[in-house]
Design goal:
The protein has 330 residues and is an all-alpha fold. It is built from 13 helices and no strands.
Length: 330
Amino acid sequence: MSLHNIRLEVMKTMEKSVDSFIDKYLIPVEKIWQPSDFLPDSREDSFFDEVQELREVSKELPYDFWVVLVGDTVTEEALPTYESWLMDVEGINQKEGSPWAKWIRNWTGEENRHGDVLNKYLYLSGRVNMREVEITTQYLLNDGFDPGTDRDPYKNFVYTAFQELATNISHKRVGKLAADKGNVLLSKMCKIIAGDEMRHHLAYKEFVNEIFKYDPSEMMRAFADMMKKKIVMPAQLIKQTGEHMENTYVEFANAAQRLGVYTAQDYINILSRLIEGWDLPNITDLDDAAEKARDYLCKLPDRLQRVTDRMVIESKRQLFTWVSPEGIMT
């Protein structure tokens, strides 16, 4: 049987458990939070007073914070690109009743709320240029997204397990920074988004764990291949207008590194957690190539650590079209 057919067979076997995955890792629409739960209610007479309070509290947050929050928001709002990519993975189809398509749609439904609530908060805060933010979002959607996984379900699940944990870390730390500045509302929003991302991470982590049971050698090679290519961030192609268009992602990443929201060290820590979580050292029945792949993966955190220890964080703050420097703390 070809590698292609083996992957399809594994996906077919796993799809019998999709409903249980949904029950375990996703929350029914009637029970999960919605963006309006965290924002002033425009039907109420107190709406304008609540918005004014939101705007006043938001003034305490520094420039790099707003850069990172905008970048995180735009990344979340590019969700249609991620959904279309996953729907094209081998073993997943969009026919009505397809278990994997059902998972992706339900996952998308949960993820969609993240961009919604963050976008509305940015708009009400009055601290950013929403038109520039919207332009950046449209650019990111227009340019598409290629995580280097092709249509391989094994690689896609590795990528998503990694990315969901990365976004959990980022949102959680943004929430902590907001709390430190007394912004209780934004802190709660970011923390509950982080909780969603952790549930999603655990789901994709379990998918990979299941594949290791059915097809350990190919799963090991797929994991190693993804790490050799490096896990690219969804915001990799993010850009602004005019002279600011180039290097937007690099400067956004520098701001996140300066704030400690998401760092090179986090990348290493996530990799180590996945290696431990999938119990790579104790996986059996590997062929020679997969043994070499495991050896590469288990040694990779130390290799990356040596590089990270020599890194110098860019201290110079860059200006973004999204955020005006006037009136925002440094």
